[in-house]
């Protein structure tokens, strides 16, 4: 399954304008088409799925042209999006590297301070039998607490990701269902309009013949 892009706003604007020009309902079919482009693996599968939608509104030649236009626009958008993501990843990596170096410096400073403190405590204990075991125990406690907090944050993050993916899947499935219903409704309406047009033609023909007989 193709990995969905997180933000297809630029492409979606173009697609909505194209559907408006074709007089196709963007609210119903726009989300469905976007889902197809994100889900299908190759261009042939995408084109077959798009044909199934657009053939109800366009003739064969026009359907083929529009399908190719949509796929090409999506490919261009995906390429630009990937380039931007790579640049962002490089920037994030640079920042992470800088933070890691700063953290190492802080840890080193803490190690030096801890070593100095131990020497001081040993000196005091030598002359006055003073121990700092309780203080050391209290200093170790926050470390364990931080690990628990970190695990909770990790679990919370994973749960959020699963919920987002689940909502995206539900949204795509709902868009597909709505598009199918709309397609059937539009098809019935076109048949109804076609019959009404034929009926008007028959009535007009009969009226013309009747007028000719009177003459």
From TrEMBL:
Keyword line: Coiled coil
Bias type Acidic residues, positions: 131-142
InterPro entries: CCDC43 (IPR037666), PWI_CCDC43 (IPR058771)
Domain CCDC43 PWI-like: 7-78
Biased composition regions of type Polar residues, renumbered to the chain: 146-161
Compositionally skewed regions (Basic residues) per UniProt: 203-215
UniProt feature, compositional bias: Basic and acidic residues: 163-202
Region called Disordered, residue ranges: 128-215
Family: Belongs to the CCDC43 family.
Record-given protein name: Coiled-coil domain-containing protein 43
Organism: Oryzias latipes (Japanese rice fish)
């Amino acid at each position: 399954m193709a990995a969905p892009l997180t933000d297809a706003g630029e492409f979606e604007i173009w697609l909505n304008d194209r559907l408006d020009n074709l007089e196709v309902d963007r609210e119903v079919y726009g989300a469905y088409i976007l889902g197809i482009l994100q889900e299908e693996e190759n261009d042939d599968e995408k084109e077959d799925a798009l044909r199934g939608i657009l053939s109800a509104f366009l003739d064969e030649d026009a359907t083929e042209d529009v399908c190719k236009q949509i796929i090409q626009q999506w490919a261009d958008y995906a390429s630009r999006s990937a380039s931007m993501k790579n640049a962002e990843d490089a920037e994030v990596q640079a920042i992470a590297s800088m933070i890691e170096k700063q953290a190492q410096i802080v840890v080193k400073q803490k190690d030096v301070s801890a070593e100095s403190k131990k020497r001081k405590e040993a000196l005091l204990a030598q002359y006055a039998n003073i121990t700092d075991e309780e203080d050391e125990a209290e200093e170790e406690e926050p470390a364990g607490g931080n690990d628990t907090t970190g695990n909770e944050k990790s679990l919370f993050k994973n749960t959020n990701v699963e919920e987002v993916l689940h909502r995206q899947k539900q949204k795509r499935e709902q868009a597909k269902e709505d598009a199918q219903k709309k397609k059937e409704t539009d098809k019935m309406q076109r048949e109804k309009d076609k019959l009404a047009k034929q009926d008007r033609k028959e009535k007009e023909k009969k009226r013309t013949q009747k007028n000719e007989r009177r003459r």
